[in-house]
């Protein structure tokens, strides 16, 4: 056994050295996504001090070291900064300063440390964003991203079926079957052991699969069509309203962009009609339905969002510009829960962290912090649109830009109904896609010759993409 371990260790070192010198940072970032989802803290960790050692943290250090090597040897592809990079950097600086300006020794029992929220929710995703942004980006790299996410989505869809059937011996990683690990046991929650993150990933993976599909042969395109129900099953079995909304938004926006104009209006009209029917016939069942908890508790969870909005508004009015300090909402909200001027049961918020990322940023970092965050998201969306509308570009950068735009649409409802900065899972995925998009913008769109002008019209067709999602 010792010999086998030694051989495996030697092989690992050899492969590690080779990858360190020759490996792609984009492929490394995809490996990080896989590791943090499936082989993170719950899979294995080593308590070597105040900071547990996990495989994803080791890989992130590896990628950072590789980036330094690539820059020193001239094999990276550094690109000039954009206003989005400045706004994202300013946001992280503001979050750091806001956190350091408060008394971090005070916290509620069981509450996540502001330091860990900053590192996990923003610094780690920013590192992934920067690594892929500064990498060489070509059609092959974007196909790797789409193919990886498509395959990962198939795995997640299969896991959802196994979870619903309670076939726990077939589930991997095995900790998924442990009800004491994570949240939302009883829903499809996958290796993330959290239904929101799981559903968010499946929604983005569905879009990636259909962006990848046009570059495949006939059998590959058929395979994507046949496995699509697995993605749909994962989204549905998450039993999470924001996931359903995000998936519908992501698919809807993608279709609106690629379909001919006549079909767009038909789709918009059909979507509006469907929305009216849902609101008038099924609103009560959507607000309160059975999942791992009772229907009454599900309804109460939805109604708490109104209380969060009320308390957040009161906190914002008291400190409108810089907020109460990053990571301080769980403590700062306590001063507002004895308000007797409202009929809302705001005292029920006492044990909860915030359930809205945008309002959380507003209360903790004020209008300045929220503005920087929205500027970043809006800037990424604008860049995707610029890439999509460039008539002279090939189809592959447009497909990746459309994937990023769809991913932002999937992500947006999660921001409204959940605080997404308590782990690296969700932001890392979006920041990876956005980093590639910004890199494409800098190499494909920004260097426009000075003696030529490019105009963009809303009615300009996209012949490279038309019909590719539905073909």
Given as residue ranges, the uncertain stretches (5+ residues, pLDDT < 50) are: 448-464
Structure classification: mainly alpha
- Morphology call: globular
Tell me the β content: under 5%
Spatial extent as radius of gyration = 23 Å
**What order do the SSEs take from the amino end to the carboxyl end, as H and E?**
HHHHHHHHHHHHHHHH
Q: Please tell me the overall pLDDT.
A: 86
How is the biggest beta sheet arranged? none
Question: What's the β-strand tally?
Answer: 0
Could you please describe the fold and organization of this structure?
With 471 residues, this protein is mostly helical. Helix content is 65%, strand content 0%. It starts with a helix and ends in a 26-residue tail after the last helix.
Give me a quick take on this structure:
By secondary structure, the protein is mainly alpha-helical.
Give the helices and strands, then pairings.
Elements: H1 2-22, H2 25-38, H3 55-72, H4 83-100, H5 114-133, H6 139-165, H7 195-212, H8 218-237, H9 241-258, H10 261-281, H11 283-287, H12 295-318, H13 329-332, H14 357-388, H15 395-417, H16 425-445
Task: List key phrases describing it.
single chain; 471 residues; mainly alpha; 16 helices
